[in-house]
Amino acid sequence: MERTVKWKAVGALALTIIFFSTFEVVSKEITYRIQPMQINYLRFLLGGLLLLPLALADQRKRAVRLDGGKLKSLAWLGFLNVTLCLSVFQISIKYIPASTAAVIFCTNPVFVHIFEAWRGHHRFSPFQILGLACALAGLFLVAFHEVTRGSGSWLGTGLAMFSALTYGLYIVQARQATQEVGSLTVNSISFILGALACIPLLLYFGIPLLTFDYQVWPWMAYMTIVLTSLAYFLFLYGLEHLPPGAGSLIFFVKPVLATALAAWLLHESISAPFMVGTLVIILGLWLYTRRPEVS
Prior knowledge:
The chain has 295 residues and is mostly helical. The protein has one domain (2-289). The chain is built from twelve helices and no strands.
């Protein structure tokens, strides 16, 4: 029975990697037919609502009560993740290739550990410093090459880097809330509150809340049901039944798979310097996870 559960967890994580790797490709496909901020608002509002029954059941199981302080914390996490970080990331995909966006965003573990060190919760070993240096060097190689060859822009690259940085901050700050109320509750409630916080921005920029080219509904349904709700549920299931380091597979495999999908489906040109930079990033992340932390 335990062996069956383990293989189910491996399958769940494998599907998660595949689903997450399609995000930038799907976003690029529809980014000129629906406003990027509108995509983000709709997918997290509906995705959070789809996760809500599971979150409520998990709350009853944990006997968790959401008081004003917890709701305030979840509202901040929703703003940081949905309203700020992922809205900016969605906009960045409009200005740079999907493959570049995927590679840049997957460097967010670098910023997680930088923020942890800044807060005094983590000290780096020399080997970990080498891994982080590799990842950052690969990031700048990818970004600089894409901009100089004309397939990207400094605006899009900067927005993607900002998204990776703020997502790292979100992960650091979400850990305590996750321990208190559970991952399902944190994500469902913060998704909904973060999406609702997008409404004033949408209204300010004259972006309609529900009106868009309805021919993109199949893509929006895929992003909401599969990428936001199902993929996250599978990710949690995989992490629950596999060793802690298994989650890092997302950041090792996604850049390569997302790049391959962008080349295949969007016919993006993948240059040698881009591939070298991507491999340097993956090497840096791998080096970092191979050594125990210094506490």
